[in-house]
């Protein structure tokens, strides 16, 4: 294990080998291997029920694994839960902020659980409210804040102990586009300051925006791993031509366009043609007298990777 | 978006600032947080836990008591003095059961602050301990208020009240500990607590020697009285205020409550852990 001058493990912040989680008869995580390096933004991408949140809870030391090994900051969550939790930050999927306290009080009281002095949490709260752009709401109760503000406060709260790793479970689910972009910008800034980010999401755009590297999960297993661009390159073509038809009629045209693309995916209301140059493919489609309701040329995304790997879409 | 704030980035996290504190300090920190909540909302709380038993004391002790003749069981004291200790116990137990029920379920289910706390170095067992200590603190405040106010009515016969207050709080804690364990395994919307109050706490208050001695009850009812913590509490609190209880039965009453407290704590620590670490 390599070590920095400060004496801390500089290699893996989290490492999992054959990690499993079973609830009675249901196995949510079925043996996964992954490593997260210090300073990295690492994503767990997958649909609901893929095992992302279960994995996150095991890393957060609030859910014991039922198989395999797991090390967080070099320690075993089973035996060093409190010591690990002292050094990580957690932003849960549903905001469990104290709605009856003020923004400032939420940050100060939470900091106290980490053994921080009153003076320290007082200053830290001011710094974090600035970071989360909540300074002007400092002494307001949390209840009336917007969803985006609450989520930013939840993130600020997760940073109260200057964590080395921040765990974010679906950080932008349920937020409007503007709130999401502000949040992404804040998270990007955090990453720049050296915090290791581990996040789950079922939004491909979020994974592309934030993650250096990600694993695609499905049915409790990792089905692919890599950088967003690398995964797209490996599992999809550069461009996609979407042909939209009346739902149910799309299958008639498969044979007509099949040989124009490297791969064709059939969705309920459209065909996806995977190709290097979608404009050229579109021209050849119209030469063949195929008349879709509409067509769209776009670049491949992680959604396409997921479709290729699992045969299903991420968000139903 | 908005213009950039002066401070662009946060401190680079070489090493996190959080640390693990010992179990007692952990519980103290949790109680400190509960206190900062209480400071905002103490008025409503004080009414329900402090004032209500006093209304009972006024109505029953003075109002109804004026109609109670100095019969066999009073033996020279007023009815007010007879029921002041036991109303203390039943008031404290009612508060204890309320505080250990709905608010605890809410910590898991609605408010979810328990879920937030166990993401920090604080453990579920420490969280349980802190909540129980917090309830004990709240009960102590209520007991002192009741004790002072009842003194103004002339409800106490001597300095025994100074022992009665902690004994009543102890009875409350013995009830709170298992109710918290029950709350931690409750999955529904909390209707169970209404049933608990209606079918357990209220009958216990009525038939466990609060308003009249239990020997006035028909014999077959007595086993139900014996398993009632309020009766054990009443006997102890009456003994220190009015006298007339020999050491051996007193020890028995105390042991019953200790057993209830310890069993409740073991079950509570376990059920908190099982609900929060899944």
From TrEMBL, chain A:
Coiled-coil portions: none
Main location: membrane
InterPro entries found in the cross-reference section: AAA+_ATPase (IPR003593), ABC_transporter-like_ATP-bd (IPR003439), ABC_transporter-like_CS (IPR017871), ABC_transporter_ATP-binding (IPR050763), P-loop_NTPase (IPR027417)
One Pfam family recorded for the sequence: ABC_tran
Keyword Transport among UniProt keywords: yes
Membrane topology: Peripheral membrane protein
Keyword tRNA processing among record annotations: no
PROSITE patterns: ABC_TRANSPORTER_1 (PS00211), ABC_TRANSPORTER_2 (PS50893)
This protein's UniProt keywords: Antibiotic resistance, ATP-binding, Nucleotide-binding, Transport
UniProt GO MF annotations: ATP binding
Top-level division of the source organism's lineage: Bacteria
Compartments where located: Cell membrane
Domain ABC transporter: 14-244
Sequence similarity: Belongs to the ABC transporter superfamily.
Protein name stated in the entry: ATP-binding cassette domain-containing protein
Automatic annotation (TrEMBL), chain B:
Keywords, in A-Z order: Antibiotic resistance, Cell membrane, Membrane, Transmembrane, Transmembrane helix, Transport
Membrane topology: Multi-pass membrane protein
Membrane spanning stretches: 132-156, 162-185, 192-214, 250-268
Predominant place of localization: membrane
PROSITE patterns tied to this protein: ABC_TM2
Compartments (UniProt record): Cell membrane; Membrane
Short name of one Pfam family: ABC2_membrane
Positions of the ABC transmembrane type-2 domain: 44-275
UniProt similarity note: Belongs to the ABC-2 integral membrane protein family.
Protein name (Swiss-Prot/TrEMBL): Transport permease protein
Species for this entry: Streptomyces glomeratus
């Amino acid at each position: 294990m390599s070590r920095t001058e400060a004496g801390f493990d500089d290699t893996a912040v989290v490492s999992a080998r054959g990690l499993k989680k079973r609830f009675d008869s249901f196995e949510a995580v079925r043996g996964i291997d992954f490593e997260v390096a210090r300073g990295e933004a690492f994503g767990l991408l997958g649909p609901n029920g893929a095992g992302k949140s279960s994995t996150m809870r095991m890393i957060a030391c609030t859910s014991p694994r039922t198989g395999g090994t797991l090390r967080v900051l070099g320690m075993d969550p089973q035996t060093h839960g409190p010591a690990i939790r002292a050094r990580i930050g957690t932003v849960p999927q549903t905001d469990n902020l104290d709605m009856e306290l003020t923004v400032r009080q939420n940050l100060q009281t939470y900091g106290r659980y980490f053994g921080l002095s009153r003076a320290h949490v007082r200053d830290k709260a001011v710094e974090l409210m600035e970071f989360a752009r909540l300074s002007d709401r400092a002494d307001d109760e949390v209840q009336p804040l917007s969803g985006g503000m609450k989520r930013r406060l939840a993130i600020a709260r997760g940073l109260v102990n200057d964590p080395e790793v921040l765990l974010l479970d679906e950080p932008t689910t349920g937020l409007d586009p503007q709130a999401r972009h502000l949040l992404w910008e804040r998270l990007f800034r955090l990453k720049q300051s050296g915090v290791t980010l581990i996040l789950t999401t079922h939004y491909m755009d979020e994974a592309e925006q934030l993650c250096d590297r990600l694993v695609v999960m499905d049915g409790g297993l990792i089905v692919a791993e890599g950088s967003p661009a690398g995964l797209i390159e490996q599992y999809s073509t550069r461009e996609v031509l979407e042909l939209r038809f009346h739902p149910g009629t799309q299958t008639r045209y498969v044979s007509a366009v099949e040989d124009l693309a490297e791969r064709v995916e059939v969705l309920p209301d459209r065909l996806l043609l995977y190709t290097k140059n979608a404009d050229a493919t579109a021209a050849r489609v119209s030469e063949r007298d195929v008349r879709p309701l509409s067509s769209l040329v776009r670049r491949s995304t992680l959604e396409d990777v997921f479709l290729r790997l699992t045969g299903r879409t991420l968000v139903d | 978006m908005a213009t950039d704030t002066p401070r662009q980035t946060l401190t680079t996290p070489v090493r996190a600032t959080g640390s693990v504190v010992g179990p007692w300090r952990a519980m103290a920190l949790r109680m400190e947080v509960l206190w900062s909540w209480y400071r905002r909302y103490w008025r409503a709380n004080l009414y329900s836990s402090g004032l209500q038993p006093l209304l009972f004391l006024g109505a029953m002790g003075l109002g109804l008591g004026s109609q109670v003749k100095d019969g066999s069981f009073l033996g020279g004291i007023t009815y007010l003095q007879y029921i002041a200790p036991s109303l203390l116990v039943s008031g404290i137990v009612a508060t204890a059961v309320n505080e250990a029920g709905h608010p605890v379920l809410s910590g898991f289910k609605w408010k979810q602050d328990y879920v937030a706390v166990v993401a920090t170095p604080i453990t579920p067992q420490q969280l349980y301990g802190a909540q129980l200590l917090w309830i004990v603190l709240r009960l102590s405040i209520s007991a002192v208020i009741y004790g002072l106010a009842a003194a103004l009515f002339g409800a106490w016969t001597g300095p025994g009240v100074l022992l009665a207050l902690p004994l009543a709080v102890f009875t409350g804690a013995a009830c709170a500990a298992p109710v918290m364990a029950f709350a931690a395994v409750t999955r529904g919307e909390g209707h169970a607590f209404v049933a608990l109050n209606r079918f357990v706490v209220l009958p216990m208050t009525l038939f466990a020697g609060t308003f009249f001695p239990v020997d006035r009850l028909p014999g077959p009812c007595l086993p139900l009285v014996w398993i009632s913590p309020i009766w054990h509490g009443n006997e102890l609190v009456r003994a220190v205020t009015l006298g007339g209880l020999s050491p051996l039965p007193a020890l028995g009453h105390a042991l019953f409550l200790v057993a209830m407290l310890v069993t409740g704590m073991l079950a509570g620590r376990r059920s908190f852990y099982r609900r929060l670490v899944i």
